[in-house]
Amino acid sequence: MRAEDVLAADAAHVWHPYASVGATPFGVVTGAEGVRLEFADGQTPIDAMSSWWAAIHGYRHPQLDTAATDQIGRMAHVMFGGLTHEPATTLASRLAALTGLERVFFSDSGSVSVEVALKMALQFQRGTGHPERTRFVTLEGGYHGDTFGAMSVCDPVGGMHVMFTDVLWRQTFLPRPPAGLDGDISAWVAQCKPVLDGLDDVAGVILEPVLQGAGGMHIYPPEAVRWLADQAHARGWLLILDEIATGFFRLGETAFAFERVGVEPDILCVGKALSGGYLGLAATLCTRNVSDGIDASESGVLMHGPTYMANPLACSVASASLDLVAEHDLPDRIRALETGLTSGLAPARGLAGVADVRTIGAVGVIQLDRPVDVAAATRAALDHGVWIRPFRDLIYAMPPFVTAPADVEQITTAMLAATKASLS
Ligand code: PLP
Questions:
Q1: Number of H helices, E strands in the chain
Q2: Which residue has the least CA distance to atom 8 on ligand 1?
Q3: Partners of 241 in the beta sheet?
Q4: What is the pLDDT of residues 98-121, one digit of tens each?
Q5: Does pTM surpass 0.85?
Q6: Which of 13, 117, 153, 422 has CB 3.0 to 4.6 Å from 138, enough for a Cys bridge?
Q7: How far apart are the C-alpha atoms of 8 and 11, rounded to whole Å?
Q8: Are 44 and 38 in contact (CB under 8 A)?
Q9: Nearest CA to ligand 1 atom 5
């Protein structure tokens, strides 16, 4: 089909994320290879977004392609109710070994994995004699997905779901912890402690450890996560960590942020990079203690079961992605990406209109003092051969882990150009 026909059908019928039908896309993608997208008009921009933080090994990776084609030769999908298969059991065993959490519930998106996490916590509390514990504590500035339970724990003021506030489950929001890995949390703790002391109906605490992603690319002290984890555990509340964005080495150093922080979650959500960006796949993991509590709830079972749960194609590709994660020295690789992003973005600090520049692992952020002119910034980056997707006041990159140093330089150059275009 010609690109014009794709665009015409798109404009007539198709909704894109957070858009109205008829909004014009920046490109018609006809293929992708390595770190580059291929547009119908011949452009081949570097994907500095890793397809929304998922394609960590780049596109058309031979090992991931082989895992998918081998699996499709056996079966693409089969229901998971009452049946099992090797791709799911292998992946679950590997995730359990990686995280220390024994029980694994597969789903098809991060948002659903968050719904399952909230449900697990509610059922656990019911099963252990606390049916009154029906609410969650979370942080302002967070983002956990677009379904209703997940929306209820997204930032209630600046988040994308503000208009739904009146119909959402009411949760308790603590102030956002101070910025920076080494920020002083004492004033924040003094604010939070009385709020927590006043609560008697909490099932769990849910947060994105160390980096709040879509809620504002906010890097905050591991110490704040540790303090909240201690508070939760001391009060019988479950600690739910949403590592859908931060998991699988995105922040460098460790595979999961919780390892860097030094806490043990009761429930953990993973998604995005889990399948190397190939297929929709997420998982909610929990401890045996949590699953025992759920078993003791009145239903005796975890009340969830998506149709495409544990899709064999997705599980096979995810296992191949974990092989790549294990084969490559990712902490080293991500240190190099961080160095490249940090030095490349440094010139943005001096620009009028730039509020902050920050990096952590394979994440580089330029924050403006005003909303980004998304169209101007995106076009400027494309003119420099890079695909970015700014939002709110943020121009950022989360490139594939296989991005070469010269490509990182191209990304930061494009981000600087996008910043200038947005500010001019
Ligand atoms: N949780 C976090 C931390 C995320 O960053 C996202 C997506 O950006 C989600 C949950 C929702 O995941 P999905 O878009 O796969 O539903």
A1: 14, 16
A2: 214
A3: 207, 268
A4: 999 999 999 999 999 999 999 999
A5: yes
A6: 153
A7: 5
A8: yes
A9: 245
